[in-house]
Amino acid sequence: MAPSALPAYESSVSTPRPKVLIPEKVSPDGLALLSPHFEIDQPKGPSAEELISIIPNYQALVIRSETKVTAAVLAAAKNLKVVARAGVGVDNVDVEAATTHGIIVVNSPSGNIVAAAEHTIALLMAVARNVPAGDRSLRSGGWERSKLVGTEVSGKTLGIIGLGKVGFKVARMGVGLGMKVLALDPYASPEIASAASATLVPDLAALLPHADFLTIHTPLIASTLDLISTKELQTMKKTAKILNVARGGVYNESALLEALDAGTIAGAGLDVFTSEPPTPGSPAESLCRHPKVVATPHLGASTIEAQENVSLDVCAQVLSILSGGLPTSAVNAPLILPEEYRKLQPFVKLVEKMGSLYTQHYSARGKGGGSGGFDLVYEGELASITNTRPLFAALIKGLTSSVSEGGGRDVNIVNASLIAKQKGIVVNEIHTRSSDGLVYASL
Fold first, then answer.
1. What average pLDDT does range 109-128 have in this prediction?
2. Under which EC number(s) is this enzyme classified (predicted)?
3. Do 39 and 98 fall into the same domain?
């Protein structure tokens, strides 16, 4: 039979496509990035128990702020590679547990900067000019002009805690409104403050007594929990108004409620709370109903543009990670420049095999294998690369491949340091130019 007459057969074996779970709303353009490559499931608001039961089937999880990715969820996520938070805050993700399991957590720190800053200014103006109260009065048939006299913001002092991307944008907008801006941020350089037209102050004592409006733009961590409480509120002007479009918990809600009731401060504009929606009977619920408070249901990132931006950003990162590439905004993994990663990639398998051979050799001789101290020496072209963590992770994976449950396959750049510590492995990474000029320096 001539070759051209041979029947054509299609393989009946096909590789299943990776699966992505998206239990919250993601923009159509974000979905369009993923759907050609992966199987997408979009259950609406699964319970914690439902999430635990289905998560083993997925390689990626894309969420917004409502889904709680707990340690129990992550322990069940046997195939999960990445949790992608479409937004900035990751306080609804147990990042430590994700790191333990080698799961990358990514976010979108830049996608909603403008939206969050604009909402801060919107609340500032609404509180200053009694806009919601005026709207309610008019709708109920009132005309209370004399009762609803507000204050101008031009010439007032805006205090900002946290001069990051959102805080910086708020500062610039405040200056545009004619406000004087004081900022507290131990990590902000004088150059950043100058670019924001803000004056840096050293501590809360130098900020709070001078602020007519106070806004915080920090993550919720141990050092920022209840950052502003009774003691701090008592140092502020009685005419001061505070704003929160960052995270519930940076202001102590009970202390804030007491300060408003006592007239210690004049008002507040709040977009975030310790429990969302606020628990019935809680201080957060009382704040939402308080006549001196303008409250919104976590709308800081709720613009068409911001939701589109963060969805596209995290979906692009999911596509990259599941395709063997790198994230651009990993919360629990080091940032590696793409051009550096390309130089490292050919050596990853080599270093892993070197570690594996070492372990097999010494295990066979009854000398234990993987634990101990190792020098990982980079010469030639590799010596100039500052972030060599992929090779560090590859060595740890190789060293533990014969002794770890699962053959070392769960070791990656996310959890390599943790596993090395657990196994008693110490790796000293050495960058040297001693071989420069030799013919095979980069071989």
1. 95
2. 1.1.1.95
3. yes
